[in-house]
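Progress note, sequence design subtask.
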């Protein structure tokens, strides 16, 4: 049985570090719920280290290396974990992300109660993500105030490490915990899992591009912007507004095609696996609705208005997918109500 207090901490901290995934994860149950909950928190810790620009690049590399060592060791050493968390002392302790790190022993406690096979699936994800995030950290070695990705291949690699690794893990967990998923369907899901992850992550990159720019990052590939006549360092300049919007539109067309794969992926899950289907459907519909609002929307570049779906839209999505969850035809129809606003 899981440590009750440790599990309580994990449940309470989740909505503080991600409101969207708090909605998705709670639809799962049993050991699959605990596994996905803990896996998300582990991945959030990796993301927090990568984002901690108040810490030196050398220290962030060390933090990621030592974090990976916890998953590679046969047993967790609480003393080493305590020493590791102490390295974050310069950061704001009231930040929920830091509270998660300072209490990560509780996350490891729930992790230790999962089956060995589940822990292995989760560890593979965390290790690969952390190794990939080291690449992102080390891109900042130039000390420049503005950082960008150069090519679509760079963007896809980044999306793989931050989201694709999670997609692979989730597919393996669905296969492990589903009582009715056929091997042939599982193989097809494995073919689509990276596209699903790319679609969700690229939607977030498009939605948050102005906010990322304010902190000195641009995930829009420089070669794509150049194709439309925009120097990437001037992507948000007023004189390039039309070309930059055309660049984002092109990226949205690519993203929408990935979301089409995400729908196919989800509908391969047996109709009896209602909770797994809803877990995927909510992420997918939040993304396609967001993308339909972002299409040819100048607010993405001005940063004056956040392009996102409303709380009402969130509740409406939960209700609609809940009613249609077992009908592939009706889910297709609902999806294309939003998807068809984007060409291609």
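Output:
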């Amino acid at each position: 049985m899981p440590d009750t207090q440790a599990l309580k901490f994990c449940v309470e901290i989740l909505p503080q570090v991600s409101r969207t995934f708090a909605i998705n994860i709670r639809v799962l149950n049993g050991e699959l719920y605990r596994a996905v909950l803990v896996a998300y928190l582990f991945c959030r810790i990796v993301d927090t280290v990568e984002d901690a620009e108040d810490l030196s690049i050398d220290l962030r590399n060390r933090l990621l290396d030592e974090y990976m060592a916890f998953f590679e060791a046969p047993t967790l050493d609480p003393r080493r974990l305590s020493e590791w968390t102490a390295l974050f002392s310069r950061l704001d302790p009231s930040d929920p992300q830091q509270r998660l790190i300072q209490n990560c022993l509780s996350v490891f406690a729930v992790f230790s109660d999962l089956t060995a096979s589940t822990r292995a699936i989760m560890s593979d994800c965390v290790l690969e993500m952390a190794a990939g995030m080291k690449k992102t950290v080390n891109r900042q070695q130039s000390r420049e105030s503005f950082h960008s990705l150069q090519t679509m291949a760079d963007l896809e690699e980044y999306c793989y490490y931050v989201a694709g690794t999670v997609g692979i893990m989730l597919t393996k967990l669905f296969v492990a915990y589903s009582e009715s998923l056929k091997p042939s369907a599982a193989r097809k899901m494995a073919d689509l899992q990276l596209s699903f992850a790319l679609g969700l992550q690229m939607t977030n990159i498009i939605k948050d591009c102005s906010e990322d720019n304010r902190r000195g990052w641009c995930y829009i590939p420089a070669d794509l912007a150049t194709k439309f006549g925009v120097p990437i360092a001037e992507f948000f300049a007023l004189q390039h507004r039309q070309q930059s919007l055309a660049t984002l539109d092109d990226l949205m067309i690519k993203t929408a095609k990935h979301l089409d794969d995400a729908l196919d992926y989800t509908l391969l899950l047996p109709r009896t696996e209602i909770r797994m289907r809803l877990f995927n459907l909510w992420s997918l519909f939040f993304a396609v609705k967001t993308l339909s609002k972002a299409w040819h929307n100048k607010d993405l570049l001005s940063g004056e208005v956040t392009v996102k779906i409303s709380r009402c839209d969130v509740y409406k999505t939960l209700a609609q997918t809940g009613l249609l969850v077992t009908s592939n035809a009706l889910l297709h129809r609902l999806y294309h109500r939003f998807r068809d606003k984007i060409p291609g």
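The mean pLDDT is 94. Work on this subtask will continue into the next period as scheduled.
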